[in-house]
Amino acid sequence: MADEYQPPAIMKLAGRQAWYYLLPAIFVLLIYVVYPSVRTLYLSLRTDDLTAWATAACVEGQPCWGILQNYQKAFTEATVVFRNNAMWIALMVPFVTAAGLGIAVLVDRVSYESLAKAVIFLPMAISFVGASVIWGLVYHWRSEPPQIGLLNAILNGVGVQPVPWTTGGAITATLAMIVVGIWMWTGFSMTILSAALKGVPQELIESARVAGATEFQIFWQVTVPIILPTIVVVLTTMTINVLKIFDIVFVLGKGQPGTQVIATRMYIEQFNQNNTGLSSALAILLILAVLPIGWVNVRRFREQEKIR
Questions:
Q1: Side-chain half-sphere CA neighbours of 169 within 13 A
Q2: What is the pTM of this model?
Q3: Which of 113, 207, 233, 305 has the smallest number of Cβ neighbours within 10 A?
């Protein structure tokens, strides 16, 4: 019987050297990702003052989740943040994706495509805080005239009562902030989907036209199925971005409890209320919400690599 294959010594040496190159990256991940995550999980199981396990926070006669008491607080005292995050996802994610796809299709048919894309993508070059300050001036409301906010000045000019966009109510303020998010992220969606549209084989489109298909039919029955993997990537990426939204809500929301999302409530509980337990629990819930979506993206990328 022939001897089993033994890899050359140089291959074994190359395998060890590969680990040497990976060690710095592994070290960085351990320090800045793994350790903070484990530490946050540990803190989420402690009481607010970190002197005992969360069971000490239980009150006699009331339901108690044991060491998961901070998670019970998150689901009972911070329910508004989950509602607001759901509103952001339900409104912003599909609208940004649809608007980006529509704009990508339209600019693909004009001679000034590059200029149009540059103008639409421009908000992405602005920081979230900068964009929030700009839109704060647009939404600015005063109880007495004159109105110095652009939007309310326009409304006042056409005889419509000015609206306190960011201070008049939680739902109105949240919708106003979602508009800012759409304005910023539509350019990102357009760029990704425009690149996908460039990869659609023109032979298929021409064949569909010869067969008598309308442009609408070509779009839904030929173009969309081909770029569907890219659309899914945009949807999942935008969902992750919306789950982690912070800057816009923190600046424009001005601390209103009704407009808070998971990230802003986590910040307020930690740095304003010194409530490390609840803040850490919210952070863990945010991680758990993001991980499955990230896994979907990774799995889809791997499937695409296999096809290639």
A1: 4
A2: 0.85
A3: 305
